Amino acid sequence: MANPAAGYHYGNAPPPQSYGGYQRPSAPYGAPPYGMLAPSTFAPGTDPTVIACFQVADQDGSGMIDDIELQRALSSYNQSFQLRTVHLLMYTFTGINTRKIGPKEFTGLFYCLQSWRGIFDRFDRDRSGKIDALELREALLSIGYAVSPMVLEILVTKYDKTGGSMRAIEYDNFIECCLTVKGLTERFKERDRALTGSATFSYEAFMLTVLPFLIA
Amino acid sequence: MANPAAGYHYGNAPPPQSYGGYQRPSAPYGAPPYGMLAPSTFAPGTDPTVIACFQVADQDGSGMIDDIELQRALSSYNQSFQLRTVHLLMYTFTGINTRKIGPKEFTGLFYCLQSWRGIFDRFDRDRSGKIDALELREALLSIGYAVSPMVLEILVTKYDKTGGSMRAIEYDNFIECCLTVKGLTERFKERDRALTGSATFSYEAFMLTVLPFLIA
């Protein structure tokens, strides 16, 4: 175990606040996991680019963006996103299984993806649209998550969809991988407030914690 | 909590041994999660039907069945299986991330799928190829797993791929759902030997427990 005085470290390199510094809203286990989001507005001083992107994405002008609208908006930035990745994004930025997000959640999601795109591009030096296993490890470290060789091996095996002999991760799978590692780690840390590196779950809490990340 | 003297119950109706009574081989966390299976043979007295099915599936006569061969064999029984479901099946019956299984693992898998097919058909009364949420709950209970309304809600939302307004689960998604609930519950129980209903994980053990069930 790491030095107990210092507390358990989930990442060796705590990232600057700008790296995916969004905090998932807490969703108590007693609350229904599915439901409607409270209406929100853009915070004063929000970058006009974010507001403009929201308005373009909100094609029906409802003030909310649904999964199809978000998929279309994200894909228009030269990134292909599967609907399951979009659902995982929405879950990450709302803490509930919803198919609509508002201005507040969109803002968090916008900055997070912008930051992760930058990290991906930094490691994708040859602009192939893919990064390899070691680069994935470094990229996860950049967003604050240190994964062991065994965890890395599982992630690469799961997210390598290139079909080639050289294992590589494409951008949308990189985003899914980041969302999964971030989400599971944050959920774990919520149960390890003393940073001991261990957490206790009831069976119900365990299932409700992990199932939202498994399948989409 | 349930009566402590009786121990925590993960299922209200412990199924007869024939209902998916297969026990996952233990995979200690120190062992590599990927690797080769030890060679195996059919146990004396194995049903000749199982051996014949294995030999038909083993198209290259290698004595092992790979993921493509297994997918083809399963699909030939009038069931469509995605490769991701096949990989989850292989993981369930080996405890490691492998792309090949031998006679021993095939036998376990054969009987388990035969049993689950029977359960699915029992609830799919109108032979639509789909079951609804309440039937899914009953079916999971039949194989020994009692899920709460909130867990059921997540499962149905995740595994309903029918796209209709009536939520329903098709056969291959039912198998994925059973494999996920069975696998996660068994892994949890391995850490709750006293049947208290709670289990403690290190961060590494938590990630290594959960990530193999990611459907990617």
From TrEMBL, chains A, B:
**Which keywords, in A-to-Z order, does the entry hold?**
Calcium
Kindly give the InterPro entries that the UniProt entry links to this protein. CML48/49/50, EF-hand-dom_pair, EF_Hand_1_Ca_BS, EF_hand_dom
Q: Name one GO molecular function term.
A: calcium ion binding
Q: Which residues form a coiled coil?
A: none
Q: Name one Pfam family in it.
A: EF-hand_5
- SUPFAM superfamilies to which the protein is assigned, alphabetical: EF-hand (SSF47473)
Keyword Zinc-finger attached: no
- Record-annotated EF-hand domain positions: 45-80, 111-146
The identity of this protein, by name, is Calcium-binding protein CBP
Give the species this sequence originates from: Sesamum angolense
What broad taxonomic lineage does this protein's source fall under?
A: Eukaryota, Viridiplantae, Streptophyta, Embryophyta, Tracheophyta
